Amino acid sequence: MTTNITAATLLLALSTTIASADVVSYIADDSMVTATTNSAQFEGIPDEQSLANYAEGGFDVSVNAISYEWDVPGMDNSGHYYPSTGALALVSISLTNGGAFDTLDMQVASGWNLDIGGPVYLWAQAYSMNTLVAEFDIDSTNGQYVGFTGGGFDTILIGAYVNDEVRDQHNALNRNTIVIDNLSAGQLVPAPGALAMLGFGSTLIARRRRS
Questions:
Q1: Sign of dihedral through CA atoms 163, 164, 169, 171?
Q2: Residue 143 zone, left/alpha/beta (φ > 0; ψ -120 to 50; rest)
Q3: The sheet that has 11-14: what strands, in order across it?
């Protein structure tokens, strides 16, 4: 299904930390991935299963914690990836074959917020061959999709924090309570020209983080 792209449903946040990075992030009401190459719905992960080096759908999704299933606001509750009581690390997402991404997105929520539409304060890093290429502070809500596109990255590290002040510390040892579902990799729905225009417009409204 194709999602219409409007200012209300898609926000591109350009990284200002690393000027050479081409990776951008977006927020949408539905997945923006098309020509899907990999997907994971995380159905049937039992409580207390280790989430370290979890593999599904060609993804490696890893954090040093055990799983917990609960009724997550804004999600369909058919299964999800969630570290019980949170984790003192970012969740790492990569392809099992070590390949690079063009576009990766996922439905997210936060264990800190139990209401539909509750805030999700995300910190994400994009890596290529163990080198940091882009970094993002993203304000989302339970049930929205968050994605990364532009190519040139093979790993995303991501976490959700209790508020923006804790998130903005960029301390991987702070408690991360991200819920992840409907993870997909492939191509981005909009044509490159549309993406470029959206990216240009977002530089005027995106909250810039001091380096």
A1: positive
A2: left
A3: 11-14, 24-28, 145-153, 101-110, 178-188, 33-40
Q: Which domains, and CATH codes, for the chain?
A: 11-202 (2.60.120)
Distance CA 40, CA 87 (A): 21
Q: What is the pLDDT along the chain (211 residues), one digit of tens a residue?
A: 323 343 334 444 433 333 335 899 999 999 999 999 999 999 989 999 999 999 999 999 999 999 999 999 999 888 999 999 999 999 999 999 999 999 999 999 999 998 888 999 999 999 999 999 999 999 999 999 999 999 999 999 999 999 999 999 999 999 999 999 999 999 998 644 444 434 332 322 233 333 3
Positive or negative: CA dihedral 2, 191, 142, 46: positive
Find tokens 């924090």 and name the residue.
161
Query: Please, what's the b/e burial string for 20-50 (b: 16 or more CB within 10 A of its CB; e: otherwise)?
Result: ebebbbbbbebbbbeeebbbbbbeebeeeee
